[in-house]
Specification:
The complex is a heterodimer of chains A (316) and B (513). Chain A is mainly alpha-helical and 316 residues long. Chain A is built from 14 helices and no strands. The longest helix of chain A is centred in the first third of the chain and has 36 residues. By secondary structure, chain B is of the alpha+beta class. In chain B, the strands form five sheets. Chain B has an eight-stranded mixed sheet with strand order 8-9-10-1-11-16-12-15, sandwiched between helices. A four-stranded antiparallel sheet of chain B has the order 4-5-7-6, with helices on one face. The longest helix of chain B has 18 residues. Chain B is globular, with a radius of gyration of 23 Å. The chains are: A mainly alpha (316), B alpha+beta (513). Chains A and B meet through helix 2, helix 3, helix 5, helix 7 and helix 12 of A and helix 7 and helix 13 of B.
């Protein structure tokens, strides 16, 4: 097991280097000159030249890349030229918001998706199964910005049950925090549960064909016990994978959802950095998020090994 | 309730009649103290240290108007009134202005406000070593001297007859900040600003709520009325409006591209629409040194081919107000004859025919849905007149460098709402100025611009600026599409919002009914 973990960890290094390269070069491909952005519409060419020199923008791009990477290896991700905040400060301020949002969205997605999948698998082919599979497909096609606005109009403007926008830190007032989080988490979950349900349903249908399930039935075990205890765990391998991958998708979704619901999370930080050409924040945040995603997938790999001994022992 | 319905109906009448009036500034009922409001801003505020942020955008402007004071302010008639300065006098040639400061004012951290503190603010922005982006806007000032405890003297490079109005705008340059605070807080000052204003910064979570509390020691006794102002960035237009409808926000920033919601608010008796048409305009500059725009007939044809009303309908549901000169309704420059070319498609066709060669050109367009939309509408107008415009989509940030290097045929630009037309008109049209984008030179125009900036008599200045407009319109070196119009939507209970000069929504003297 230790060897397995060590080998997986080694794989992370080239992946992270590739991520850093992509992040940096995509950011430097963005049109517009950072010096002009900082100095504004009224900059003189001399000022621009001086600032470019100051910031090292006159250097070739690969020299700037290694300079950036070198600083990062020493823990210095740089500082926003607009707010003077360091990347790490900005990320640590915003991360809890996005993290909570993602966890809540994922839990909500699982809470909706898993029971539905089990019921559909147990009665596959029934009218309920066909209806749920159809609605899952329909929900999958509704973009987050649409469901967000619809939810706001229903729950905030018409019914006045929940706030439309805003945020209170969990540490300050947990109840209020959750009230603000319901609609954003639900918006993300609405796009999550269909995938969860469809994957788990089809895996479960396959598991339910296995001989040991037939044996369990023959022994006279209760149907619910068979479904939840005997069939769920072996069917959840693909579910674990997509839950892991979903974290990446949720980061993408958070960009939209945090903007609409005005949550001060990482997604908003990214959007703001793009609009204001805050490349240092942009590069730093994208790199950290990508690294988080890669590590998440690494954890998923480990979970796989826990769930399925064949992988752990290299037989898969 | 009745009053709310009435004010909303009034809003509609004013809009229909075409008056940009902040109607809530009409003779008010009794002002009530106490209460708290939440303001939905458009953007995250990056901070207040002018060396870091360079300029304040409209979101920062709203906070700055509450946290800081300026020397003067403009009342709703556009007349300069005292704030941190009590009085001011120009020298004969308008190159020196002396301001007498208000005694006994303290910054929120206890530092006394005096001429020395004011000078430190100015020097910090002006110092070339600080490389402040803000320095551009004070380039016309040579120095500020503190001649005694409560007297500051502005020494100007060029005469300015309107300096007291120019320094009224709560910009990064004019907002007076505590020197002790920025010296002791260093990098942290940006997010912990200290001023003399009616509100004190209580807390500020990044990207989220900024809480401002009433300054109990404010020099203007009895002000402000509200105990607390909460500023929240709500970047999405739909959910921002939903927050206003559901009562989470009491007032929100808006613009004419959100026309549907503005019209909805006009019909809602619980909401009020505040609007102000400022000076300046959305403008476009031809590069007159390159074909086909080296020929005045082509330029005139393109301007005549415009149909601004249709364009306003297409992009803002008819809210955007056509502009025929660079000054606008909010400016004190009012022209009987601004020399605007007629909107006449047939004449435009004839001029292009007369030119004889095919008219093909590229126009810079910002790569945003709004930019593309505007570009496509213009493309259609010009196609009907027989000219082929190709849209060149570029990032917003690449337009200034392209414009300064004159790497364009036709570019969008903007004249912002300032208290005096001089700074921008002189920069945009004086021969040889880096921002004189049209590359056009005309001694008559130069003379008028020089004279208008040094004349004290307002009527003579108006005459000169109208003559300037006539030359520009006739030569069609720039053209104007729409006036700068600003919007705020609020609960009908919020009263006392002043005119939104320069687009700043100043809630620091509002109250709840």
């Amino acid at each position: 097991m230790l060897l397995f973990v060590a080998r997986r960890l080694l794989y992370l290094i080239p992946v992270l280097i590739a991520v850093s390269l992509l992040t940096f070069f995509i950011a430097s491909l963005l049109p517009g000159d950072l010096a002009y952005v900082i100095l504004g519409d009224q900059a003189t060419p001399e000022n621009v030249a001086a600032l470019r020199k100051d910031m090292g923008l006159d250097q070739p791009v690969w020299i700037r890349y290694f300079g950036w990477l070198g600083n990062i290896l020493q823990g210095d991700f740089g500082r926003s030229f607009r707010t003077g905040q360091t990347v790490l400060q900005a990320v640590t301020e915003r991360l809890p918001v996005s993290f909570e949002l993602m966890i809540l969205a994922e839990i909500t997605g699982l809470v909706i998706g898993v029971p539905l999948a089990i019921v559909c698998a147990a009665r596959s082919g029934s009218a309920f199964d066909r209806f749920m599979t159809g609605s899952a497909f329909a929900m999958l096609s509704v973009p987050a910005f649409l469901s967000a606005i619809l939810l706001i109009y229903l729950f905030a403007v018409e019914l006045r049950w929940l706030p439309a926008t805003g945020y209170v830190p969990f540490t300050e007032d947990p109840a209020a925090n959750l009230r603000f989080m319901v609609l954003p988490a639900l918006t993300l979950a609405l796009a999550e549960w269909p995938g969860i349900m469809r994957v788990l349903r089809s895996d479960m249908i396959a598991t339910l064909q296995e001989d040991y399930i037939a044996l369990a039935k023959a022994k006279g075990l209760k149907a619910s016990r068979i479904l939840f205890v005997h069939a769920l765990k072996p069917s959840s391998l693909t579910l674990v994978t997509i839950t892991g991958i979903n974290i990446g998708r949720l980061i993408g979704g958070a960009v939209i959802v945090e903007t609409i619901f005005a949550l001060p999370g990482l997604g908003r930080l990214l959007v703001g950095a793009i609009y204001t050409r805050d490349l240092i924040i942009l590069q730093g945040v994208v790199l950290l998020v990508a690294a988080g995603f890669v590590i998440m997938n690494f954890i998923v790999d480990l979970l796989y090994a826990v769930l399925d001994p064949r992988i752990r022992h290299g037989h898969a | 309730m009745k009053a709310a319905i009435r004010s909303s109906a009034l809003a509609r009448i004013f809009l229909v009649a075409g008056f940009g009036v902040a109607f809530s500034a009409m003779p008010a009922n009794a002002q009530k103290a106490g209460g708290s409001i939440t303001f939905g801003l458009e953007l995250d505020i990056p901070g207040f240290d002018v060396l870091k942020v360079g300029v304040f955008d409209t979101s920062a402007g709203t906070a700055a108007a509450a946290l800081f004071d300026t020397l003067t302010y403009l009342d709703d008639k556009g007349v300069v009134q005292p704030k941190l300065a009590l009085s001011w006098t120009p020298s004969e040639d308008f190159k020196t202005w002396t301001f007498k400061l208000r005694p006994g004012v303290k910054f929120h951290d206890g530092t006394p406000f005096n001429a020395k503190a004011f000078k430190e603010n100015f020097d910090r922005q002006k110092d070339p070593a600080n490389k402040c982006r803000c320095a551009f806007y004070i380039a016309f000032v040579n120095s500020v001297e503190a001649t005694d405890e409560l007297t500051v003297v502005y020494n100007l490079k060029d005469p300015s007859v309107n300096l007291p109005a120019i320094v009224s705008f709560p910009s990064g340059n004019n907002s007076v900040q505590s020197p002790t605070a920025w010296k002791t807080k260093g990098d942290d000052y940006n997010r912990n600003p200290v001023g003399t204003g009616p509100y004190i910064l209580k807390s500020w979570a990044a990207g989220d709520r900024m809480v401002l509390e009433k300054n109990p020691d404010y020099w203007n006794k009895g002000r402000p009325y509200l105990d607390r102002i909460v500023l929240k960035p709500l970047p999405d237009a739909q959910s921002r409006f939903a927050s206003l409808q559901s009562g989470e926000a009491d007032i929100i920033w808006d613009d004419e591209f959100d026309a549907d919601n503005i019209m909805k608010a006009q019909k809602d008796p619980k909401l009020a629409v505040h609007t102000y048409v400022g000076s300046g305009a959305q403008v476009y500059a031809f590069n007159t040194k390159v074909a086909p725009f080296d020929d005045v007939r082509v330029r005139q044809a393109l301007v005549m081919a415009l149909d601004r009303k249709k364009m306003s309908q297409a992009i803002t549901n008819g809210l955007a107000k056509p502009a025929t000169n660079p000054y606008g309704e909010g400016s004190w420059v009012k022209c009987k004859d601004d020399g605007a070319l007629p909107e006449d498609l047939e004449k435009a066709k004839a001029l292009i025919k007369d030119y004889g060669k095919p008219v093909d050109f590229k126009m810079l367009v910002t790569a945003t849905p709004r930019g593309r939309n505007v570009g496509q509408v213009l493309q259609q107008f010009w196609k009907r007149a027989g000219a082929n415009m190709e849209i060149e989509q570029v990032d917003q940030a690449t337009i200034p460098p392209r414009a300064f290097m004159r790497q364009f045929q036709l570019t969008p630009w903007r004249i912002i709402d300032l208290a005096d037309p001089d700074v921008q008109m002189y920069a945009n049209f004086r021969t040889g100025s880096p921002v004189a984008l049209a590359n056009y030179s005309n001694p008559e125009l130069d003379n008028l611009l020089e004279r208008a900036r040094t004349t004290a008599d307002v009527n003579k200045r108006i005459e000169d600026y109208c003559a300037v407009s006539r030359i520009i319109n006739k030569e069609a070196i720039w053209f104007w599409t729409f006036q700068n119009t600003y919007y705020a939507l609020s609960s009908a209970k919020l009263k006392g919002l002043p005119k939104m000069y320069s687009g700043v929504i100043d809630v620091s003297n509002t109250w709840l009914e």
